[in-house]
Amino acid sequence: MTIETVRSHARCRVLIVNDAAAPSSEVTDCLQRAGFEVAITPDGTGALRLARSTAPDVVVLDVVLPDIDGLWVCRELRS
Fold it and tell me: How far out from the chain centre does Cα 44 lie?
């Protein structure tokens, strides 16, 4: 699937979960320029809260987070 294909459909929501600010900022800028709706959080607790409130289409998830292990967050999001 290309960005053009995604853009032709309803606006996709992306949730980025990463405690490192610089990479998140670069990825966010790129995705927003491509037309994606982006939410960012630096921790697992915020990821679970935002996922419930925004229902993202895609989650970009860091495995090492300051509060909750990213793999645990992934399992919770999938359940």
Answer: 11
For all residues of the chain together, what is the average pLDDT?
88
pLDDT digits (tens, 9 = 90+) for 8-37: 556 899 999 999 877 778 889 999 998 899
Strand, helix or coil for residue 28 = helix
Burial 49-58 (b: 16+ CB within 10 A, else e): ebbeeeebee
* Residue 56 tokens, joined: 């993202």
Cβ–Cβ < 8 Å for 73, 65: yes
Is the pTM higher than 0.85?
A: no
| Strand order across the 58-61 sheet | 37-41, 13-17, 58-61
Contact 65, 17 (CB under 8 A): yes
Q: Could you tell me if 13 and 36 are in contact, meaning their C-beta atoms sit under 8 angstroms apart?
A: yes
